[in-house]
Structures are given as structure tokens and as C-alpha cells.
Amino acid sequence: MSQPATPTRQDEIPVPDVSQLVTEDDTPVDNLLSEKQMRLLTEALQASWRAPDERPFFLAANVGVFATATNDPLVPDVFLVLDTAPRQPFEDKRNRSYFVWEHGKPPDVVIEVVSNSEGGELTRKLRGYERMRVPHYVVFDPWHELGTATLTRFEMHGDALVETPGPLALTKLDLGLVLWRGRYEGEEAEWLRWCRLDGTLVQTGAERAEAEKRRADAEHERAEAERKRADRLAARLRSFGADID
Which helix (DSSP H) or strand (DSSP E) does residue 237 occupy? Predict the structure, then answer.
């Protein structure tokens, strides 16, 4: 009689060897707007957003995402993953990119910023993220290199990423994406911004500091007005001979 198979312990499952993978090739960002846009999306979320129940999250720009242990990663402009976080130390090669098998899931949201017609955002990359089973894929095309749409959104349905109308809205996270025209780091443009479901923007660190300064200034003005009112009342009472000291 054959012996029953011994259950495989989790720590006995072979871990892919990543030592030979090219995880960074030092390719520069192709234009200033893309660089600023990526920083706007990452910096604001890091500065002003907390996932419900303090869930950890992994947020990165221009970092390779490996679905398998082959030397063919996709490199999203920005991606967000819930319930996992970057691992330390960064000197370890296994911690310098996003390996799906290490974190247990693909990115929840991938964002691509189109700067020319050669990036394959609606063809090669779309199919790659589809195979990876990314639930939400957003393509921001500010200069209409790929067509007339500024923003195109896809959701995973079954085995396919399907173009879906309307803005991204992650209800359970109170988080979405919106087009916003304004000035960021001195540049006036139409930007892609994280927002809450009520439409308010997720602020950058500079915006938070400015808002706090305005609140502090307003509070100071209210206190100063109250002090002056009290001084006027005291002066009036003294004019009637009241001893208020």
C-alpha cells in the first residue's frame, strides 16, 4: 500500500530565485510633466491618506512589477496595493521591486501616464495587466496621443480588463481619481488627482501646510477681534465709572 503524501509546509514551497533579474535599469523619466504627475499621485497619498482600519499599503512610481520570475516586468507609472507594504532592507534585491508572489497579490490600481504613442498603454500594457489580473487600470492621456479621451478606465470582469465609463471610485477606501486643473509645483495644467468620494482632493503636503496656516491665521484673527471687543467693552464700562480692574 502506498504511503499518503506528506503535506507540504508553507516554508518548504520553493521561492523563485531573483538574483539574475534586472530590477532596475536606470532609464530616466521621459518628460517633466510625467515626472511631476507621478510625484503628485504618490506624494499626496503618502502625505494625507490613511487606509481604513490603518491597513498597510504599497505605493510606488516607476518600479518594476514582476508577475513571474522572468526578466519581463511591467513598470507602471504609479501603482497602489492594499494590505501589503514595502519590505526592508532595500539592499536586499527581493525588496527592491514588486514581486507578486512575495506579496500575494497584483496591484489593486495601476495608473499609466501617456507621453507618446509608443508606450503600448492601450495594447501591450493593457494585455499585460490583464494577464496579471489587476482589478483597476487607469490611463491618463493629457496630450491625447492615443485618441480623444483624456482618461480611460478599465475594470477586471472575468478574465478581461473591460473599459468602464466614469471615474475610478473605490467605495470601501473612500478613494477615487479625478481630473483637476490647477497649479502644482509652479506648473499650470490638467492633473490627475486622488480624491475622496465626496470630491475633495487628497492634499499634498504643501497644500496641507497651507491649509493649516490659513486655519491658524483665521484663529489668530478671531482671537485678536475678541481681544479688541473686550478692550472696547472695558473702556466703555470705565467711562461709566465702573471699576473692572
Answer: helix 205-239
Residues spanned by the domain of 213: 204-245
Whether residue 95 sits in one domain with residue 42:
yes
Query: What letter would DSSP give residue 45?
Result: H
Considering the domain architecture, whether residues 185 and 195 belong to the same structural domain is answered as yes
Q: Both 144 and 56 in a single domain?
A: yes
Is residue 1 helix, strand or coil? coil
Give the pTM.
0.81
DSSP calls for 63-118:
--EESSSSS--B--SEEEEES----S-TTSGGGSSEEHHHHTS--SEEEEE--STT
Least Cα distance to 156 among 176, 126, 120, 178 occurs for 126
Q: Which residues of 183-202 are buried (b: 16+ CB within 10 A; e: fewer)?
A: ebeeeeeebbbbbeeeeebb
**What CATH number did the domain enclosing 49 receive?**
3.90.1570
Quick: pLDDT tens for 59-93.
Answer: 999 999 999 887 689 999 999 999 999 988 877 77
Task: Name the residue type at position 65.
Answer: V
Question: Is residue 174 located within the same domain as residue 242?
Answer: no
Same domain, 124 and 234: no
Nearest to 176 by CA among 92, 100, 111, 236: 111
Q: State the sign of the Cα–Cα–Cα–Cα dihedral 9, 107, 54, 164.
A: negative
| Per-residue pLDDT at 180 | 97
